[in-house]
């Protein structure tokens, strides 16, 4: 049985490309549902992600009674997540669909892997350090971040991220069952 994984992207680039991550997820038997922050739409190939997943990348909230609900997730991966998006998520500022969904999923207890990607200068900001501390304190969140890695290497290779995903999926299931509002 395929597991559903929400992949949340934001306005940061990924050296290996998000479509390659989606292909790896699919090879491992995951059904990927892609979501993006508004700025993230300028950084990722949404047409390619739609071609791979068979669904448009969700950026906006849907109006009640319109469109289809998202399938319930077994896992959420937020990668790459910018300085701004990390801070919003940690503080609960759900001013866009993707960040609102992250906030809601941890409320449901859905395992959520967060992979920040920002310049070292931004990573040294006190707000970012506080946000990382907050995210580490959320039981459903796994933070994948190496502050000491060079800026260009802070995003892990996809195979390393896939190992983290496999480990998270090996744990107890926490999928959302009531998702009519998603």
Task: Write a structural description.
By secondary structure, this protein is α/β, with parallel strands linked by helices. Helix 1 packs parallel to helix 2 (46-53), helix 3 (83-91) crosses helix 4 and helix 3 (83-91) packs across helix 6. The chain is built from 7 helices and 5 strands; from the N terminus they run E-H-E-H-E-H-H-E-H-H-E-H. Helix content is 37%, strand content 16%.
Low-confidence stretches: 173-182
Quaternary state reads: single chain
Q: Give the biggest beta sheet.
A: 5 strands, parallel
How much β-strand is present in the residues? Answer: 15-25%
Give the rounded overall mean pLDDT.
90
- SS-based class: alpha/beta
Percent in helix: 25-40%
Provide the succession of SSEs: EHEHEHHEHHEH
Helical segment tally? 7
The N- to C-terminal Cα distance equals 22 Å
- Spatial order of the strands forming the largest sheet: 2-1-3-4-5
Number of E-type strands: 5
Computed Rg: 15 Å
Write the layout of secondary structure elements.
Layout: E1 3-9, H1 18-27, E2 30-36, H2 46-53, E3 75-81, H3 83-91, H4 97-108, E4 112-116, H5 120-123, H6 126-136, E5 141-143, H7 158-170
Parallel strand pairs: 1-2, 1-3, 3-4, 4-5
Helix pairs in contact: 1-2, 3-4, 3-6
